[in-house]
């Protein structure tokens, strides 16, 4: 079938979401509704893919172009309704369509932008059904147990579609129909152009309904319907309750797919996996784990409980326990957590450790190197097999610039050190407890900083001294350090 053009409707505000964000920019499985619909529609290879925008125009346009750089952006005018959106698109696209299909024999696919689980295979079945039947238009429908809120599909005696009636305009008998309009259609191009020409707003919402074009299309030939086998794939999201329900159902499927691929998931109810995440076999996910964005996890790695990974690359047989980690790389057999925060731009080497309550940012940690307790490591490069004592801080910010710290291999940084950047510590160095390192430390040296211990013997706190002896007492106690 020659699919000339596709029109994605994304101009509506999505009033029922009660948000400043346009509805099609809400996300499910880590991608916006609009991105998801555009990829499903784009897979059908339309020669022209257009997106109708109005509410939150700039944001919606930017998101559309991110997903599909060649998308034609059409602005809907102030007249509301799905029918008006298509009128605006068709008048904007008329010239482009005429150039590829002067007689209008090809097809137009229309899809609402608020159907996050719309998929390429549902669309290709719809287009097959349309082509096989020779219909002038085919509506993608689905059959629901509770069809409340949707447009009902009214079929004639011969099974063809007579019209679509919106819930609020329907009679009691029509409301009893369980087959509903999903807001996805294929039209013969020339028929669509004529069917939308005479839309009006004689309905309960005073909007131009695209659904009315179905009845008009009946004047040019048969209008068919194709019922989507999977109701989730065609559900349009109208409010946040529906979004949560749909996201949950989708996530359950994603978890089950990964379990069948060899991933153990102890509790799919509290494990959330974005669509673009990739997991190897024998990965084990413990409760409250969120794998987001383009996170990739290697074989045998155990993650959780209480972990959020965003755009992370994790090697095999690693162990991550109670951590938030963003846009970084973790080597094989590395250990992270509990209570660790890895900010973007880190590389943790093979068998390395980011231990308890450690924050890292833009740092490279060599193989076998350990940062086990209570540290901040920022803008730092550390070699292999180095140990960083508990409580060590890299002072990377001088109030104006972020400065680098470099620590070599086989270094032993004592506990509670402060490395004042920019600074470098060469290979094989040992530093004393509590050292403040401000200058280059040469290979193999011991570096420590003066930190004199004083002691005042037989000392009584001022508040406990008799008033008369206060002066004496102070004198007696002077110079007690021995
Ligand atoms: C629409 C259908 C209904 C169907 C339901 C499926 C109409 C009149 N009704 O109703 O039969 O059962 O979808 O979910 O078409 N939009 C625009 N411009 C506008 C208005 C809407 O581009 O002026 C876009 C929205 O951004 C959205 C889509 O069209 O992506 C659907 O709009 P929505 O208001 O959700 O339609 P429904 O009332 O759900
Ligand atoms: Ca809708």
What do you see in this structure?
The protein is of the alpha/beta class. The chain folds into two domains: 232 residues, Spore Coat Polysaccharide Biosynthesis Protein SpsA, Chain A (Alpha-Beta Complex), CATH 3.90.550; 208 residues, UDP N-Acetylglucosamine Acyltransferase, domain 1 (3 Solenoid). Strands 14-17-20-23-26-29-32-35-38 form a nine-stranded parallel β-sheet, with no helix packed on it. The chain is elongated, with a radius of gyration of 33 Å. The chain binds uridine-diphosphate-N-acetylglucosamine and calcium ion.
List its salient traits:
9-stranded parallel sheet; binds calcium ion; UDP N-Acetylglucosamine Acyltransferase, domain 1; 2 domains; alpha/beta; binds uridine-diphosphate-N-acetylglucosamine; Spore Coat Polysaccharide Biosynthesis Protein SpsA, Chain A
The largest β sheet comes out as: 9 strands, parallel
Level-1 CATH class name of the largest domain: Alpha Beta
| Average of per-residue pLDDT values | 95
Number of helices: 9
Per the CATH scheme, the topology name of the largest domain is: Spore Coat Polysaccharide Biosynthesis Protein SpsA, Chain A
Poorly predicted sequence stretches spanning 5 or more consecutive residues = none
Write down how many β-strands occur, each being a DSSP E stretch of 2 or more residues: 41
How many structural domains in the coordinates? 2
> Between the first and last Cα atoms, what is the distance in angstroms?
96 Å
CATH homologous superfamily assignment of the largest domain: Spore Coat Polysaccharide Biosynthesis Protein SpsA, Chain A
Task: List bound small molecules.
Answer: uridine-diphosphate-N-acetylglucosamine, calcium ion
Give the C-alpha Rg. 33 Å
The best one-word shape is elongated
How are the strands of the largest sheet arranged?
14-17-20-23-26-29-32-35-38
Share of helix, binned: 10-25%
Strand content: 25-35%
Structural class: alpha/beta
Architecture of the largest domain, CATH level 2?
Alpha-Beta Complex
């Amino acid at each position: 079938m020659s699919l000339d053009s596709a029109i994605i409707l994304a101009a509506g505000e999505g009033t029922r979401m009660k948000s400043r964000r346009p509805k099609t920019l809400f996300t499910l499985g880590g991608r916006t509704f609009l991105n998801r619909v555009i990829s499903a529609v784009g897979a059908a290879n339309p020669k022209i893919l257009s997106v109708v925008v109005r509410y939150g125009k700039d944001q919606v346009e930017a998101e559309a172009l991110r997903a599909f750089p060649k998308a034609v952006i059409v602005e809907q005018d102030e007249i509301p309704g799905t029918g008006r959106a298509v009128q605006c698109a068709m008048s904007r696209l008329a010239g482009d369509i005429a150039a590829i299909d002067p007689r209008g024999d090809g097809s137009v696919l229309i899809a609402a932008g608020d159907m996050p689980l719309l998929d390429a295979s549902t669309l290709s079945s719809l287009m097959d059904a349309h082509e096989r039947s020779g219909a002038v238009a085919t509506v993608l429908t689905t059959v629901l147990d509770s069809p409340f809120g949707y447009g009902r599909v009214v079929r004639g005696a011969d099974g063809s579609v007579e019209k679509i009636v919106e819930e609020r305009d329907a009679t009691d008998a029509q409301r009893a129909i369980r087959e509903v309009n999903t807001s996805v259609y294929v039209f013969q191009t020339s028929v669509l152009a004529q069917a939308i020409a005479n839309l009006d707003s004689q309905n309960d919402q005073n909007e131009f309904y695209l659904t009315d074009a179905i009845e008009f299309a009946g004047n040019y030939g048969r209008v068919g319907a194709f019922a989507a086998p999977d109701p989730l794939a065609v559900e349009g999201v109208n409010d946040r309750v529906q979004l949560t329900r749909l996201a949950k159902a989708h996530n359950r499927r994603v978890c089950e797919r990964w379990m069948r691929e060899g991933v153990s998931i102890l509790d799919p109810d509290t494990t959330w996996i974005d669509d673009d995440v990739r997991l190897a076999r024998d990965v084990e996910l413990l409760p409250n784990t969120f794998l987001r964005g383009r996170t990739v996890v290697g074989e045998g790695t155990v993650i959780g409980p209480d972990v959020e990974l965003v755009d992370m690359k994790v090697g095999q047989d690693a162990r991550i326990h109670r951590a938030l980690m963003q846009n970084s790389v973790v080597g094989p057999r590395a250990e992270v957590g509990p209570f660790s925060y890895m900010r973007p731009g880190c590389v943790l080497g093979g068998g390395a450790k980011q231990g308890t309550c450690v924050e890292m940012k833009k740092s490279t940690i060599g193989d076998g190197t350990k940062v086990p307790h209570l540290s901040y490591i920022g803008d730092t490069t550390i070699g292999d097999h180095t140990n960083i004592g508990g409580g060590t801080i890299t002072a990377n910010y001088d109030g104006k610039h972020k400065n680098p710290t470099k620590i070599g291999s086989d270094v032993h940084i004592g506990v509670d050190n402060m490395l004042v950047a920019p600074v470098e510590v060469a290979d094989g160095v040992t530093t004393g407890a509590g050292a403040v390192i401000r200058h280059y430390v040469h290979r193999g040296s011991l570096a420590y900083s003066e930190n004199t211990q004083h002691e005042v013997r037989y000392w009584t706190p001022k508040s406990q001294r008799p008033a008369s002896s206060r002066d004496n007492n102070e004198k007696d106690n002077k110079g007690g350090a021995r």
